[in-house]
Specification:
Layout: H1 2-13, E1 19-24, E2 27-35, H2 46-54, H3 64-75, E3 84-88, H4 94-101, E4 106-110, H5 114-126, E5 132-134, E6 146-150, H6 161-168, E7 171-176, E8 187-194, E9 209-216
Parallel strand pairs: 3-4, 3-6, 4-5, 6-7
Antiparallel strand pairs: 1-2, 7-9, 8-9
Helix pairs in contact: 3-4
């Protein structure tokens, strides 16, 4: 039923759009319900375009930074094992799913978009992992040990979130391909990965170069 509802929402925005189960090319441990790769790329009507800008369907894609974050987490399990993890702005839930598969003690996924909440719940079920999905990250029932944030800095107005994260958790892991001069106290770059968005959006190659930043305030 959730999948049918999400498909209806997608088709209302994108003619011929469907929810399709996709194995991530760079992280084949995870499958997600995403927009079908052969979705219509024809020019949208003015009404459809305005609606899509007003209510962007971030959750129908696995963004390059999300796929890179998931790959990094699975390849570096010590960062997650036994910890309480909060995935901020979870979208499709890919980072939360990776954390759950990597031995996290507890995982929460948060997103202000109710459709993303439903999509994440569906994807967690698809991957047989236990993740509690919430809308407001500040209502997380327990203090997280580490916060994950993938591709949430596309708007410079979101940069203050980085300070909020370190005020709420001793560790933060950020995956980003948008910020050119990332110079934020406590955060340091620990990895670079080349990735891509699924399904293809035809983005510039620069947005596929993902930097991973880590903040550890437990030592300060």
């Amino acid at each position: 039923m959730i999948e049918e509802n999400l498909t209806k929402i997608i088709s209302d925005f994108i003619p011929g759009g469907l929810v399709e189960t996709t194995i991530l090319p760079q992280c084949d441990e995870i499958s997600l319900c995403l927009l079908n790769p052969d979705y219509s790329k024809c020019e949208l009507s003015v009404e459809q375009g305005l609606r899509l800008m007003k209510e962007p369907l971030f959750w129908v894609f696995c963004w390059a930074s999300g796929q890179a974050m998931a790959r990094y987490i699975i390849d570096n399990p010590r960062l997650i094992e036994g910890k309480r993890v909060l995935d901020f702005g979870c979208g499709s839930g890919v980072a939360a799913i990776a954390a759950a598969k990597t031995g996290a003690a507890k995982v929460w996924a948060s997103d202000i978009d109710p459709c993303a909440v439903h999509a994440t719940a569906l994807n967690c079920q698809l991957n047989s992992v236990s993740v509690e999905v919430i809308e407001d990250w500040e209502t997380c029932p327990e203090a997280p040990d580490i916060i994950l944030a993938s591709d949430v800095l596309y708007d410079e107005k979101n940069l203050p979130l980085l300070d909020q994260f370190i005020a709420c958790a001793p560790e933060v892991l950020v995956a980003d391909s948008r910020v050119k001069n990332f110079n934020v106290p406590f955060y340091r770059k620990i990895a670079e990965l080349d990735s891509f968005t699924i399904p293809d959006l035809g983005e510039p190659a620069e947005f596929g170069h993902v930097n991973i930043y880590y903040a550890d305030c437990s030592l300060t």
